[in-house]
Design goal:
Blueprint (H helix, E strand, L loop, with lengths): L3 H7 L1 H18 L23 E6 L5 E6 L10 H36 L1 H15 L3 H12 L3 H9 L3 H15 L3 H8 L4 H9 L4 H24 L11 H8 L8 H28 L1 H4 L3
Antiparallel strand pairs: 1-2
Amino acid sequence: MTSTYQKLWRNVSIRAGFGTLAVLVLLAIATPLLGTIDPVAMDATFISVAAGTKGMFTLPDGTQIAHTFWMGSDPIGRDVWSRVLYGTRISLIVGIATAMVAVCIGCVLGMLAGYFRALDAVLMRIMDGLMAIPSVLLAITLVATLGASLTTVILAIAVPEIPRVTRLVRALVLSLREEPFVEAARALGTRDASILWRDILPNSLAPLIVQSTFIAASAILTEAILSFLGLGLPADIPTWGNIMAEGRVQFTQSPGNVLFPALFLVPTVLAINMFGDGLRDVLDPKFAKRL
């Protein structure tokens, strides 16, 4: 019988998505080694220069270094190549952290709602109320209330995702709690906390892993939207959304300031979604039967 690992590796979507993400992670790790400079350093000598321009860049401490602007520079003389690569780090951090926060909180709430009937009505009405608010609008409200920072942006994007995870886990728990192995554990006097941790949670991991990939992709895209609108991370933090927002002022003269970050944003979101689709095809029994 074909093992799960073999099925995962044979899936084209998983291989394509994983390969693209691996390249992006390597770029993020090796950013200081790829001809980059301080992403917030500016030199008025190189304002909106074309891609491939070479010159002596003056660092904030007055030191001059030979530098090539592989993607040109922005309207205030910052290197777009450096800002895009450092923005890769921020985007990956936002995606991974948001998925972890949403899945962890949603998993706990979903298990409580699905296993304890007394909590079900209360928790799910709260989740329904959160889901009634558009996710971007809720994120904007939270950022405006808590202040713009990496932590608050992650929390603001994670909160709208929590109800979706909660409803998913609740549905899984409602079906699992009636399974014979759970009823046997209750008959033996096993504590509810132990049943949830040792019996129900492991059987819910596959759908949660798949859901976390879609949350990560959505978080990266939402962060870019918020930053593009000036409602996300502060302008001094290099993110793809901030770079595109600053470049749109001179889009006709320097379209690369918008296009180059987009060329990183689109493959990243696409790769995560492909990876998640592949995981769903292999791990979800409904789709696995088709393989």
